[in-house]
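To the wet lab folks,

You asked to see what we're planning to order before we commit. Fair enough. Below is the target structure as tokens, and below that is the sequence we designed to fit it. If anything looks off to you, flag it before the synthesis order goes out.
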């Protein structure tokens, strides 16, 4: 099992907060809890500081800083209720989204299951996690931090340093939604559900490239080799004509493009950093994509 930490790039949200990213399995995640105070379109997310107002929102989106201390957000990110998470204006940067329950499960399964995944995701040491921070290795580079929570019943702030709880975008029942929890004294990741009025952390995951293109049966006719590549890669287009090649990094930024001839094309990739890339080949009425590893 390998984690492409060397492929890190940064992503900027609407407020100008800059986040590192990490590639784990087939997914790309932010390495930090979300801090944004605006939706993607620039609309403000209400900052609700009053306890009574928080618990009476019922359907209204809100965020807060732990203990209403703006300095807490610098390290731990902000806490959001589910109505902010599920708003169609999106709290994540462009090309990113709040992970579904299934996407969380994909991550946890890749890491070996609920019993061990927490240790692989948690930041090491006791600077932010309370002792003993059981099992923490952070071998994925995910750097999970215990941002605590805000209670749905009385608006109180709870367990910073002891627990981290992260929303999914998936509803459980009308009043509740699925979350993932990590604790200072366990190496597990718990799948739970809480009232939508609760305040929890958010991690964004990158939109899947494969959901953005129309794959067709030409895939088996396209050959890309060697893969992994070092300095050069050959693309055999199987006599297809009028092709455009584009290479994207793990956060969706195009890093290379050119027109291809039918037959075999020799591509210089020596300028690319080590990591995972997506090669997108586009014809007159079709598109295919392949993953490329650059060593």
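Sequence we intend to order:
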């Amino acid at each position: 099992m390998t984690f492409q930490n060397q492929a890190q790039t940064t992503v900027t949200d609407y407020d100008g907060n800059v986040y590192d990213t990490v590639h784990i399995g087939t997914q790309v995640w932010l390495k930090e809890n979300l801090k944004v105070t605006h939706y993607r379109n620039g609309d403000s997310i209400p900052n609700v500081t009053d306890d009574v107002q928080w618990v009476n929102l019922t359907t209204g989106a809100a965020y807060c800083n732990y203990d209403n201390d703006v300095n807490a957000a610098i390290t731990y990110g902000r806490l959001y209720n589910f109505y902010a998470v599920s708003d169609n204006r999106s709290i994540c940067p462009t090309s990113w989204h709040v992970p579904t329950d299934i996407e969380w499960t994909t991550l946890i399964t890749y890491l070996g299951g609920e019993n061990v995944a927490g240790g692989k995701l948690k930041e090491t040491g006791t600077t932010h996690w309370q002792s003993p921070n059981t099992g923490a290795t952070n071998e994925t580079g995910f750097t999970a931090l215990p941002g605590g929570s805000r209670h749905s019943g009385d608006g109180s702030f709870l367990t910073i340093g002891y627990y981290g709880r992260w929303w999914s975008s998936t509803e459980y029942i009308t009043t509740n939604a699925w979350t993932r929890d990590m604790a200072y004294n366990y190496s597990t990741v718990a799948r739970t559900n809480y009232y939508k009025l609760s305040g929890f952390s958010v991690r964004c995951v990158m939109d899947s490239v494969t959901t953005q293109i129309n794959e067709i049966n030409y895939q088996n006719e396209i050959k890309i080799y060697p893969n992994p590549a070092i300095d050069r890669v050959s693309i055999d287009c199987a006599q297809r004509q009028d092709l455009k090649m584009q290479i994207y990094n793990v956060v969706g930024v195009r890093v290379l493009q050119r027109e291809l001839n039918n037959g075999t094309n020799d591509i210089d990739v020596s300028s690319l950093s080590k990591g995972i890339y997506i090669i997108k080949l586009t014809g007159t009425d079709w598109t295919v994509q392949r993953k490329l590893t650059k060593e």
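Structural context that might help your review: The first helix runs from residue 51 to 55. The helical segments are 51-55, 70-76, 82-85, 101-110, 114-121.

Thanks,
Computational group
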